[in-house]
Design goal:
By secondary structure, the protein is of the alpha/beta class. It has helices at 4-18, 29-42, 58-70, 86-90, 95-111, 133-140, 146-149, 154-163, 189-204; strands at 21-24, 46-52, 74-79, 118-120, 210-215, 218-223. The strands form two sheets. Strands 3-2-1-4 form a four-stranded parallel sheet, with helices on both faces.
Length: 227
């Protein structure tokens, strides 16, 4: 088994080989680590792209923007419109595909001005074998997965992130607001706003890992037992 230092070195070499790279950045553990490595390997030839849409809580978006500024990354905030698509709102199990497909499509359009740019996302070794519709969207758009190529697992990325001084090293896992609705339950903007407001209360009270599950007139609150 490779030491994590060897994996990181392999990652940096792969990133350098791309020349110009656009990273799908969300502010989470994996994409933040990938962004930092891409910036180290390519400097201003690495651009981080973050989606701004109603499915992303304002606090999460601002936190990600602040981190990029603190690390001097070249960040582009783009408006995505998955929430306007019937396939996304229907929430029939392939919601993530339509969300990622919209993001990668917009990334392709925006990055075309820079010529031959490779697109990358933060899929990791742990994701292999899971049913992830977003992975299919990545394949459709030829988006590479450098962390996965380097064989990096989540626990290793947390260790390496801590060594780099990234505040995301211990960050809890996060999923978009659309994930708070049972499969088959239609999503609407008003309901997503309700979820965001409710979760902002939990965040303000210091909870690290939490979810509000929306069930129409009812909601279920999930909080990590350690909290």
């Amino acid at each position: 088994m490779k030491a994590i230092e060897e994996k990181e070195q392999a990652l940096l070499e792969e990133l350098k080989s791309y020349g110009t790279l656009a990273v799908a950045y969300s502010g989470g553990v994996d994409s933040s680590y990938l962004a930092d490595c891409a910036h180290e390997a390519l400097g201003q030839n690495a651009r981080m792209i973050i989606a701004d849409s109603p499915s992303i809580p304002r606090a999460e978006l601002q936190e990600a923007i602040d981190l990029a500024a603190a690390r001097s990354w070249d960040l582009r905030v783009i408006q995505t419109e998955e929430h306007l698509g019937e396939d996304y709102l229907a929430n029939q199990g392939d919601r993530c595909f339509h969300c990622k497909n919209e993001l990668f499509s917009k990334m392709e359009t925006i990055m075309s001005e820079f010529g031959d740019t490779v697109l990358a996302h933060g899929a990791i070794e742990d994701d292999k074998g899971d049913v992830r519709p977003g992975t299919q969207a990545a394949a459709n758009h030829c988006v590479v997965a450098p962390l996965q190529n380097a064989g990096l697992y989540k626990k290793e990325i947390r260790i390496l992130s801590e060594r780099r001084g990234l505040p995301t090293a211990e960050k809890a896992s996060f999923a978009c607001l659309g994930s708070r609705f049972p499969t088959g339950t239609r999503i609407d903007l008003e309901s997503m706003t309700q979820v965001e407001k409710a979760e902002s209360i939990l965040r303000a009270r210091g909870y690290a890992q939490y979810r509000i599950r929306h069930h129409g007139d009812l909601c279920r609150i999930e909080i990590e037992s350690t909290d």
